[in-house]
Design brief:
Strand content of chain B: 25-35%
Number of strands of chain A: 0
Largest interface: A-B, 51 and 34 residues
Oligomer: heterodimer
Largest sheet of chain B: 13 strands, mixed
Distance between the termini of chain B: 79 Å
Order of helices and strands of chain B: HHHHEEEEEEHHEEEEEEEHH
Number of helices of chain A: 8
Order of helices and strands of chain A: HHHHHHHH
Largest sheet of chain A: none
Structural class of chain B: alpha+beta
Radius of gyration of chain B: 22 Å
Shape of chain B: flat
Chain lengths: ~160, ~300
């Protein structure tokens, strides 16, 4: 697979993951660009990629973790601008992100990969370097933690997807 | 749970601007070291110009401050030597330090990457007849040119100021970006009369440029730039001063080997490079005091240089 084909097929997947994990759109754009640039470099070095989508999401996971560490070092508090704060959708997003931020990193990653990127539990395990059983267990814990933290904010009674 | 995430107002598609940038990057060829294996002598001049322009650019006032711009232009015309030191930090982990020094025919440009990623280190220095190029690798190229490049900082700076004024590029830039310039009354700091210039962008909260200018010469002393994402750059300037001449010498890590090359012994690329340097020298030397080029005498000079070789 060449870089042009890779970005055509999977850029949106990377964007969905990164923009779900970082609050500021400009940070999300920068990190997405870093992910794609790193992937292009590897491809040009003749790296053979069996599962491009999962491979890219693994790179994205690591780049986001780097970005979050940098943010922590700077003690930076993400801000919503006033325009964003006006919309109900953005308030909901802000609330979801606030809860995700409070979860352990692996739980937050697992939820985003599962529900934003639509990966199967096995694929979540592949990106997070866990066995399918461990990934399933991680997702269960993540959902439970999310429910507890989101109680009173969201209606989280739907359970139709939990065992998938 | 799934429904909640489905309601997230996350766009399914990457923004158009990002998509364009990624598409562009995907078509680029693998990056080579910046001058290996080909000698790209022009990089030195470009680096000087780019860095100096960066310094000048942020001094350019909006059209309402044209008088101040004239002062800046006049001030640069009087430069006989310069030392510019710059440091930048980006929230994404890129950071670096750059030095630009020039005095008479000696000059040096160096860049040190102090961050997680970004360009390679480099060090380019020139003393009459000899160019030293290091691109961060194990070997530095020392190229004997058999000729002198009459590089004069004041010519570069003056020419740059004229170009910038003539093209109105930066006035347009300021208008388009909606930048606002505030020039304050002079104050005395450490026995020196200075005035502060603040440039802000009302469309981008957090963007600010603060320049401290010597009130006697109208040349900048320091400049701090803060970007909206937390990126920052600090530059300090010395003009016409007696700075330490060791700053004009290349500073390379221990273990770097020097490879000496005489340009006359090189093949086709060497001839191309020689020709390029010659033309560059002509452009520098054959300039009237009023900044306009003289009659083209490049053929004569090439012939003379070959004879000297």
């Amino acid at each position: 697979m060449n870089p042009t084909e890779l970005q055509r097929l999977y850029l949106d997947d990377v964007w969905r993951y990164v923009s779900s994990r970082l609050d500021r759109p400009e940070d999300a754009e920068d990190v997405t660009m870093e992910v794609m640039a790193a992937a292009f470099t590897r491809l040009r070095d003749d790296t053979v990629v069996a599962e491009p989508r999962l491979w890219l999401l693994t790179i994205a996971k690591n780049k986001v973790a780097d970005a979050l560490r940098r943010r922590y070092r700077r003690r930076e508090t993400p801000l919503m601008d006033s325009e964003q704060a006006r919309g109900t959708d953005h308030l909901r997003r802000f609330a979801v992100n606030s809860i995700l931020d409070k979860l352990p990193d692996d739980q937050s990653q697992a939820l985003v990969l599962k529900y934003v990127n639509g990966l199967s539990t096995d694929e979540v395990g592949s990106v997070l370097k866990r066995s399918p059983e461990a990934a399933n267990s991680l997702l269960q814990r993540a959902r439970q933690s999310f429910r507890e933290l989101g109680a009173g904010t969201f209606d989280l009674t739907d359970r139709e997807d939990e065992d998938q | 749970m799934k429904n909640l995430f489905d309601k997230q107002p996350i766009s399914d598609e990457a923004p158009r601007g990002l998509r364009n940038k990624v598409e562009y990057a995907s078509r680029q060829q693998p990056r080579r070291a910046w001058f290996a294996p080909r000698y790209r002598w022009a990089a030195a001049g470009t680096a000087v110009a780019a860095a100096a322009v960066a310094g000048v650019m942020f001094l350019v006032p909006s059209s309402a401050e044209a008088k101040t711009w004239d002062m800046v232009q006049d001030a640069y015309g009087k430069v006989r030597g310069m030392l510019i030191q710059m440091r930048f930090d980006d929230p994404n982990g890129a950071s670096g330090e750059m030095l630009i020094a020039g005095k008479g025919n000696d000059w040096r440009v160096s860049f040190k990457n102090t961050g997680d990623h970004g360009p390679d280190n480099m060090d380019i220095s020139y003393s009459p007849g000899e160019l030293t190029l290091w691109d961060g690798g194990d070997t530095a190229q020392v190229i004997s040119l058999g000729m002198n490049i009459p590089f004069q900082p004041e010519q570069v700076m003056q020419g740059m100021a004229e170009q910038l004024t003539a093209s109105k590029i930066f006035e347009q830039h300021a208008d388009e970006m909606g930048q606002r310039v505030r020039v304050e009354q002079p104050v005395v700091v450490d026995g020196r009369r200075v005035y502060n210039v603040y440039i802000t962008d009302p469309n981008k909260a957090g963007n600010q440029v603060h320049v401290v200018v010597d009130a006697e010469t109208d040349l900048p002393i320091s400049m701090k730039m803060q970007g909206e994402r937390g990126e920052s750059m600090h530059m300090s300037f010395e003009f016409n001063g007696e700075f330490d001449r060791s700053l004009l010498q290349p500073v390379l890590p221990s273990g770097v080997k020097f490879k000496h090359t005489d340009i006359k012994s090189m093949g086709g690329e060497g001839k191309d490079m020689f020709r390029g340097l010659e033309e560059f020298g002509n452009a520098m030397e054959h300039t009237h005091d009023d900044g306009k080029p003289q009659e083209d005498k490049s053929e004569v000079r090439i012939e003379r240089a070959v004879k000297l070789g």
